[in-house]
Amino acid sequence: MAKEKKTVTKIDPRKELSPYLNHISDRQKKKSKKPKLSTSLSKLRYERRKSLSINLGIILGVSFIAILCLGYYVSPLANISVVQVLGAEDLPSKQLVQNSGINASDKVVTYTSHKQKLTKRLSGKYPEIKQISVSVKNLNQLVLNVKEYEAIGFIKDGDRYRKILSNGKIGSQSLAWSEINQDKPIFIGYSHKVSLKDDLKLFNSFPDEFRNQVKLLSASTKRRTQIILVMKDGNVIIGNIDTLGNKIQYYDIIKKKAGKNSLIDFEIGAFSRPLNSHEKKAFGIS
């Protein structure tokens, strides 16, 4: 009886061992990638030294600046040497500085942070002042930048004039005719504040275009409620302060029909007539 031939299966040892070999290879790679403890400590020490250096630099820088500021404050350089006034064209600068309470021995920084206090103190003496801002020039020169209320007109005060300010107050300075803005209207004949207050309220209610045409407002009238306006075009308007604001819109229409140098009466209804020679002289119309 013949023996059966056994089948021999060939095994590739590399194939059988490859999972094991790959596993070992991966472990070795991971081990090689894992940072060494000494390297991590060195990096940590470097970061700490860097952070310490930065913090130390900041502390030294702030301390240096603080020492400089303190040295400046206690030195004579911090004392006010000059006070300069800008923006107050009609206000006496020397008197303004005296009334401000600023002294040569005062520190500059004292006033840079007290502009509201300065404004309040000086506006009480000078109604023209709206606001004061303070700046420093050349370490110890104080500059007062004065912002004034706008002048909407001028009130006659004897032979001189004072500003009528946009806040309704009268300016402190008495000005000559050559010193005023002659494009602004002149208010004459006002001896009582109440009268000026009412007429000023009426004037401010007029449209801008009409206000720019007014040359003069007069309270020298027969009745307290009456007002006279002399216009730049040579016409004269008479009206009642309670009703003129509503009627003024018809001025341009009436003046076209009336012509130049006419008296336009808005008190009761509306009518016009030419000015006589006496009226022209009285109102300064040539």
TrEMBL record:
The chain crosses the membrane at residues 52-74. Pfam families: POTRA_1. It comes from the Bacteria. It is a single-pass type II membrane protein. PROSITE patterns: POTRA. Residues 75-149 form the POTRA domain. Cell division protein that may be involved in stabilizing or promoting the assembly of the division complex. PANTHER family: CELL DIVISION PROTEIN DIVIB, CELL DIVISION PROTEIN FTSQ. This is Cell division protein DivIB. It comes from Lactobacillus gigeriorum DSM 23908 = CRBIP 24.85.
